[in-house]
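Collaborator request, handled under Task 6.
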Amino acid sequence: MDRKKILKSLGIIVGITLFVTLSTRLSQKSNYTLTDYAADHPELNVKTEKSISAGDDSTYDEISKNNEVEKKQDANSVKEKTASGNVEADLIETDMENEAKQEIRTEMLIGETLMHLDGSEGDFFRKDISEDLRKYITGISYPAEEQTDIDISDLDYVHIKYMDFEGNPANGELICNKYISEDLIYIFSKLYENDYRIEKVRLIDEYDGDDDLSMADNNSSCFNYRNIVGTKTLSKHSLGLAIDINPLYNPYITFNDDGTSNIYPKGSEGYADRSKDFPYKIDENDLCYKLFTERGFTWGGNWNSSKDYQHFQKTKP
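Structure tokens returned to the collaborator:
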């Protein structure tokens, strides 16, 4: 056999061998998954996810764990940037902390905790002030002095339900005179049934007993042993016989001899003109006004020497 024929035969054999090898690899490649690739190349640390099938709880658990790990890694990354002086990361971490604190504050009621309630009492109820709650409010909303015009035994803790500004049900709490406990339970239950919006109902003690801070935060509150603003006269709030509703939108206004006025709280000036129409305004057509006056309360919006549109009070015989 001459040299040319031998080379030609070898070429044919090599060609056939290459064709068979390539065909085999192509057929195998169609079944070659990302998981297979990861197994063949462990040095690359390729991440893969299992397919999620119905009822495969282990897969869901694994993915949940991976998500938690990633969240912790993100949080650590923020902390590392903060430690290195990254101002933006510092602001992000602060926002995250503030949001977490706000969520806790929204869910927790201080009075409810100190009253040792277990949730079996329902949404609308009254109870005597517990010893723990008394200790907490003493020196804040309740005076530390022994001689006062109100005894702790004259006060009730009242738990209510209300609709917040976003239309979500929320828990609220008040301290009031026992004389109006049932009135408040009735009124707030009717407001709740009728989807009446209130921004928040917290103990004034959360604001260190500062009525200005409470009003500016649009907090609706009742008992607070204090004088009427700008006077040395005790307010009806000191007896637990008065309540303020959505105070930011229903300001307290006093009038000066020179024709000027003082508007409380700060920031509520835009709501002093009661001829205007705006949300959360209390007037004689408002359900809140109707319910309180039906139960024997007087409204500060009807006063002449001043106007207290947030304020309802009841006189004890």
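The cover message to the collaborator said: "Residues 18-38, 43-72, 77-84, 101-106 have pLDDT under 50 and may be disordered. The chain has nine helices and nine strands. Please let us know whether this matches your experimental observations."
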